[in-house]
Amino acid sequence: MTVLPPLSDRNLVSPAHLLKGRNAPARADHATLSEVFADSAADAGVTGFVMAQLHHANDSDKPVLWIQDRLSRREAGRPYLRGLGLRISILYVAVSKPIDALWAIEEGLGCSGLSAVVGEIWGDPQALDFTATKRIALRAEARNTPTWIMRRAATPNLSAARMRWRVSSLPSALEPDDQRSPGAPLWKAELFRARWDTPGEWVASYGAEGISLSHGVADPPAPVAITG
Amino acid sequence: MSVQDKLPVLAFPSRRTAPAPKDDRRAHPDDLARAMAALRSAFEDDAQEAEHQRDTPRHYTTEEAFSPIGTPRPTWRASLKKGGEVTDTKGQSNHIASGPATERDALARRIVSIYLPRFSMERWDRWATRQPDTPPPDLPVVLAVEGPHGPVVHATNRAAEAQGLAAGSRVVDIRALCPEVRVEFADIAGDRMALDKLMLWARRWCPWTAVDGTSGLVMDTTGSDHLWGGEAQMLREMEERLSLLGFSANLAAASTHGAAWALARFGGVRRVVPPAALKAEIAPLPTRAMRIDADTELVLKRLGLKTVADVAAVPRISLARRFSRAGIAQNPLMRLDQIMGRVAEPVNAPDDPPRFAVQSQLPEPVQDPTPHLPSLCEELCRGLAAEGYGARRITVTVYRTDGEVSTLTAATARASRDPGHLLRLFDDKLERIDPGFGFDLITLGASVIEDMQAVQTRLDGAVDDGAELARLVDRLTARLGARAIRAPALTDSHMPERAEVWPQALRQAPRAVIPRPHRPARLFDTPEEIRVLYAVPEGPPAQFIWRRQTHRVTRFAGPERIAPEWWRDKPGTRLRDYYRIEDQHGRRYWIYRDGVLGDGRGETPRWFVHGGFA
Q1: Worst-scoring range by mean pLDDT, A158-172, B11-25, B151-165, B431-445?
Q2: Is A85 within 8 Å of chain B by CB?
Q3: DSSP-assigned beta bridge partners for residue B399
Q4: Does residue B121 belong to any structural domain of this protein?
Q5: CA–CA separation, B539 vs B551, rounded Å?
Q6: Quick one: which of A133, A158, A129 has its CA closest to A148?
Q7: What pLDDT is attached to residue B42?
Q8: Which label site among A12, A74, B20, B166 has the fewest CB atoms less than 10 Å from its CB?
C-alpha cells in the first residue's frame, strides 16, 4: 500500500480556511498572471494543471500563444496537441533567450485575438524580475487574458505574479475498469502566494468545468502497486 | 531628363499627319493601292469588310493577330497602324508588294519554345538536396499523382528511368518491377506556381513570355536576339541559365509557336530554324509534334499518316471535311496551319505584376533612416490602396554615398497596407542596416504583394481577431524570425511524431485540434533511451533508469502497438509497443519498446521514453 504524502504542512486548519478553500472555483472571470513551479523538469503534470485552468479556451476560435525557451523544450518536450485534452489551436513561439520570451508574452498581451498566453521559462534569468512580471500582470489584467508562466528548475524569487503555484503529480485516481492502469490524473497544487485569495494546498484534477480543487481529506483511493 | 524623353513622342504624330512625299514612294503603285484599300476597309461598314475577307480567305487581321499582347486591339487602331506602316516604312513596302501581307508577317516573328522535360522531378530534387537525409542519386524516385484507380506515376528521375519505370504507369505496378523505388507525391499546384515565377524570370531575355502547357515556356524574341549575340548564342545562354537553376531544358527557335514547340520537343539540340527552312525541318517530325491529342494521333496513325509531311501531303479539302467539327487540339489541319503561320497564334504574354516602390532623395547624406520611413510607408500604402493590393513583404534599401547598398526586409502573415503596422515591423531592425558614412537615397518597396479587398467584418466597425492575430505574427516574426513562429496542425499519419506538422505561422493560420485519449501532453523531439533494470517478459520493465534516476513502474496500461508506415519508412523499421506507465512519484510517462524480440529486424529491442502525461 502506498500512502499519499501529507498534503498540508502549514497550519491552516481553521474551519474558515477549510470552507473557503474547498472546491474553490476557477477564477475564470478574473484573468491575471499566474506562475506555476514544477518540482521536476520531466513532470508533465504542470502542463495538465495549466490546461485544466485554461478550460475557457476549449472550443474557442482564438488560439493560445505558447512560448517556450530552448532548454524547456529540450528538457520537458514540446506540447503535443492531441494530448492536451482541450480542443484548442496553438500559436507556438520558440525563443532562445528569456528576454525574448518576456517580450513575446508582452506582445501577445497587446493582441485581442488570443484566448490565453502560456510561457515556459527555464531557471532564474535576470530578466524575469519584479518589474517584468508586473508589466505582464498589468497587461494581462487590462486585456483580460489569462497568462501562465511555467517555471522549471527555478526558485520562487520576488515576482508580481498574482497567483503562484507549486504543482507536482500525484498517483492518479483509480481506473474503474482496470485496476492496474493509471487513471484520471491528480496533482498536488500548492498556492503559496495569492493576491486575492488565501494560500493553501489542494488535490487538483480535471473537473467538468475546468479545474477541480479538493482538499486531501477525501483522499483518493490508494493505488495498488503491481507485484513483480 | 524625363521632359526631354517626352519631346519626340509629342513631335511624332505631327510628322505622321503631314507626311513629306518622297520621290521613290511614288515608284510603287501597289503601295498606294494597298493604302487606299486599307483606308477603305477601315471606314466602310462591316458587310463590305466581310466581303473583303471572303475574297481573301486566309486574310486574318494581321496587326491584331500578331501583336504580342494578348488583348485584341480595336479595329480602328489596327487599320490606322496598317495605313501608317504602308506610308512610313519603305523597305518593308517593297516586300509587301512582292507577296501577300499575311504570309510575310506570319513568318517574320521569332518564337522560342522552352521545354522543361523534368520540371517536377528537378523541383523535387532541389527540395530533397536541402533535406538532412538527401537520397543518393542512384535511388529510383518517382512522383505520383492520384489517378482513378490509385496513384499513377507523374515524373521519374534518371535512376528510375534506367530501371524501366515510365510516367503514366501505376505505382503498384512499378513497385513490383522495382521494390526499392521511393514514391513521393507530386506537387502539381506548386509546379504551376513555380512555372509562373519562371515565366516572369524569363523576361530577362525578351518582354513577352508565357507559360506553355504544364512544363514549357514560350517567348516572343522578335528583335531581342541581337542583344545576346544572335539566336544561337541566346539559346545557349538560356540553357545555361536554366541549368544553373537546376532545370534541364530543350529549346528551339522558329517563326511560329507551333513550329518552335515541335522542334523543342522532337527536333535536335537548340534548333534555330529560319523561315525558309521551316517546311523542310518540320516535315520529318512525327504527328505528335503537331500538338494534337493522343486520340487524334491514333486516328492519323490508322489512316497511315505518321509524319507531318504525310499530313501536309493530304489535300486540304479532305482534311477540312474530316475534322470540320473538331476542336483545336483534335484538328491536325488547324495545327498544321499554325505551324506554317497560316493561322495566327500570338504569344499571350500576361502583364507584369504591378510593382510598388517609393523613394526619397536626400539633399545630403544622413545616417539614420528612422525619420524618413513614416512618410515612405504612408506613400507606399496610398499606392497599394489605390490599386487594391496589400504588401506581404517590404524592403527598405539605402544607397550609401560610397556606392554600397544595404537592405532590410520584413514579412507579414496577411496582406497589409496599414502604414503604422508596416512601420512597426522595422522597429527593432533599423539598427541592423549599415549606413556607413551616410546615404543619400532611401527606397521602400513592396516586393511581394497580394490582392487585398477592403472588408468590414463586423457591423460595429471593430477589428476582427484574424487581422489582429496576423499582426501579432508579423511583429513576432520581425523580431524572432519566421522559423521561430509556428502554427502546429495535424496531418494524416499515425506515427506520434509525424501526426503533427509545424508550418510557419506566416504561411498558415493556427487550427484547432480535436484531442485524443491516451496521448501524452508533452512529446520529446527525439525519444530518449532508457536503461532497463528489471525486465519482465510481458509488459513494460518494472524498473528503469532515465536521466540518471531510477523509476519504478507502479501501474501501466498497454501495449498500444503502432506499426511503421511502410509507405514512408525505410525497410527494416521496427514496430513500437507503447505503454502508459506511472512511476513511484506519480509521474506518468509514455514509453515504448522498439520492436519485438525475434522479429528479425535487429537485436534485443530497446526502450525509449517518448512523452509525459498530464
Answers
A1: B11-25
A2: yes
A3: B405, B441
A4: no
A5: 15
A6: A133
A7: 63
A8: B20
CB B297 within 8 A of CB B276: no
Question: For chain A, what percent of residues have pLDDT higher than 90?
Answer: 60
Supply the pLDDT for residue B374.
93
Residue B486 lies in a domain: no
The number of folded domains in chain B is 3
Q: What is the mean pLDDT of residues B488-516?
A: 89
Q: Is residue B392 part of a domain?
A: yes
Residues B457 and B367 in one domain: yes
Task: Note whether B469 contacts A171, CB cutoff 8 Å.
Answer: no
Domain boundary pick from B60, B86, B102: B102
Range of the domain at B548: 522-612
DSSP class per residue in A165-191? EEEEEEPPPBPSS-TTSB-S-EEEEEE
The pLDDT of residue B494 is above 80? yes
Which of A80, A84, A186 is the best mutation test for B, with the most CBs of B within 10 A?
Answer: A80
Of B469, B475, B611, the CB nearest to A77: B611
Are B534 and B439 found together in one domain? no
Stretches in chain A below the pLDDT threshold 50 = 1-11, 23, 25-28, 217-228
Partner residue facing B611 (CB), from A80, A90, A95: A80
Structural domains present in chain A: 26-214 (3.40.50.300)
Domain end, chosen from B67, B102, B137, is at: B102
- Within-domain flag for B324: no
**pLDDT above 50: residue B91:** no
CA separation, residue A132 to residues A69, A70, A74, A154 (Å): 17, 20, 25, 16
CB contact, 8 Å: A138 with chain B? no
Residue B226: C-alpha distances to residues B206, B233, B237 (Å): 11, 9, 13
- Grid cell for residue B194: 513555380
AA letter at B317: I
Cβ distance of B521 and A92 shorter than 8 Å: no
Q: Which of A52, A27, A61, A54 is nearest to A116 (CA)?
A: A54
Do the strands A147-152 and A116-122 form a parallel or antiparallel pair, or are they unpaired?
parallel
Chain-wide mean pLDDT for chain B? 82
Chain-centre distance for alpha carbon B516: 39
Question: Considering CB atoms only, which of B480, B521, B589 is closest to A95?
Answer: B480
Q: Cα angle vertex A182, ends A179, A185, to 5°? A: 130
The alpha-carbon radius of gyration of chain B (Å, integer) is: 33
**Residue B36: pLDDT band by 50, 70, 90 thresholds?**
low
Q: Are strands B576-583 and B549-562 parallel, antiparallel or unpaired?
A: antiparallel
Residue A60 CA to residue B548 CA, distance in Å, equals: 41
Contacts with B513 from chain A: Cβ below 8 Å: 81-82, 87-89
CATH number at residue B425: 3.30.1490.100
What count of other Cβ atoms lies within 10 Å of the Cβ of residue B101?
19
By C-alpha distance, the chain B residue nearest A62 is: B465
A171 in contact with B, Cβ within 8 Å: yes
ipTM above threshold 0.90 = no
The whole-model pTM stands at 0.63
Residue to test with chain B: of A61, A75, A81, most B Cβ within 10 A: A81
| Dihedral angle sign, alpha carbons of residues A213, A216, A219, A222 | positive
**Using a CB-CB distance cutoff of 8 angstroms, which residues of chain A are in contact with residue B475?**
107
A positions 205-224 inside 8 Å of B (CB): 223-224
> Could you report the per-residue pLDDT of B310-367, keeping only the tens digit for each?
999 999 999 899 888 888 889 999 999 999 999 888 899 998 888 899 999 999 999 8
B422 touches B381 (CB < 8 A): yes
Check residue B614 and give its pLDDT.
Answer: 87
Q: Residue B445's beta-bridge partner residues?
A: B357, B395
Three-state DSSP class for A83?
helix
